[in-house]
Amino acid sequence: MNPEALLAQPLAPYAAHSGLSRGRLFEETPPSARSEFQRDRDRIIHCTAFRRLEYKTQVFVNHEGDLFRTRLTHSIEVAQIARSIARNLQLNEDLVEAISLAHDLGHTPFGHAGQDALNDCMEAHGGFEHNLQSLRVVDKLEQRYGAFDGLNLMFETREGILKHCSLANARKLGDIGERFIQRKQPSLEAQVANLADEIAYNNHDVDDGLRSGLLTLEQMNQIDFYATHSREVERLYPGLGGRRAINETVRRMINALITDLIQTSQQRILDARLQSVDEVRNAPPLIAFSDGMAQQAALLKRFLRENLYRHYLVNRMTAKARRIVAELYACFSAEPTLLPPDYQLGQPGTAGASPQARAIADYIAGMTDRYAIREHRRLFLVDEGHL
Ligand code: MG
């Protein structure tokens, strides 16, 4: 189909239609000049947690280099990939965009290292999980509106943000947790955003890994998926080399993944003879790569885990990050009076209680990398400059 014609396509019957939505927790007047999901997207872009993404680690800590991905640029890349897929499948682009932009709002500073450390600290108080925290940010922590806490987003946006959830947590969440208990699927838009996330980070981590020098081209060429596209680039542009050859290779990898995902998912949707979102929820996951492509993607993921995420220089930053988060938590939990007033729940003697622990986790999770580093310095360094 002519790509321009895609713009004029109506939503498929199995797409999320805002008119058939389960709506918002607090009823509001419908927006006059945009769709309900556009309104969600706009609220997300304007919220504080979204701006903080600029200074939160994806793999490399923000100050390690100006050209690496941050959680903000990652989220924008996810939204771009997800929208392309959604348009081709006649799904709701506004919804996939909203989910994609919000999916990482609950991340701690220092990426997964920060989350693991905070989860350990919170063991006696229900743990810490970034997906659940993203939902908590949009449901409770953002304070911008007169009538409600949070952003009061549509059910389908919140459902897409909560990608994973333990059964114990699901039971506490009411309708948004139901699907984990009943083993149902979320909307196709949520499924698209989930896989767009994977496409984005696998490829930009290759790009950032090579840029940083932690990965080499010799290593990358041992991965079939990379080598195939790299050979194609060499055939088209003999001797190109350098950043351009890397970019030409990575863009082909992204394109191959997106194209495969669209074709495979389209076929699965056709085979399932879907007529509505309800049928989507009861069907098996329908947004998927072909078996061959899923295998390639898994190999790439494993390669990145072994060679980039566990590179000794990354490990050094990870170890520091865990220490900073654990020490901040221990310090606030022993002396909640050191917290900013908004996070102090109360009377002497509440130290160690779960609500106070959760408020400490909220405070730490909201920090950017550099804020956490500075806060750690302010609390632990004793010299004239840091009192
Ligand atoms: Mg992500």
Question: Would you give an account of this structure?
Answer:
The chain has 387 residues and is mainly alpha-helical. The protein is built from 19 helices and no strands. Helix 4 (71-88) packs across helix 11 (188-212), helix 5 packs across helix 8 (155-161) and helix 11 (188-212) packs across helix 16. The radius of gyration is 22 Å and the shape is globular. The chain starts with a helix and ends in a 7-residue tail after the last helix. The site of magnesium ion has 5 residues, from helix 11.
Condensed summary:
This protein is mainly α and 387 residues long.
Topology:
Elements lengths: L2 H5 L28 H11 L1 H5 L18 H18 L4 H10 L8 H11 L8 H12 L13 H7 L5 H6 L5 H5 L5 H25 L4 H4 L3 H13 L5 H31 L4 H6 L8 H19 L2 H23 L19 H13 L2 H12 L7
Bound molecules: magnesium ion (MG).
Magnesium ion binds next to helix 11.
InterPro entries: dGTPase, dGTPase-like, dNTPase_2, HD/PDEase_dom, HD_domain, PHydrolase_assoc_dom
Organism: Collimonas rhizosphaerae
Pfam families: HD, HD_assoc
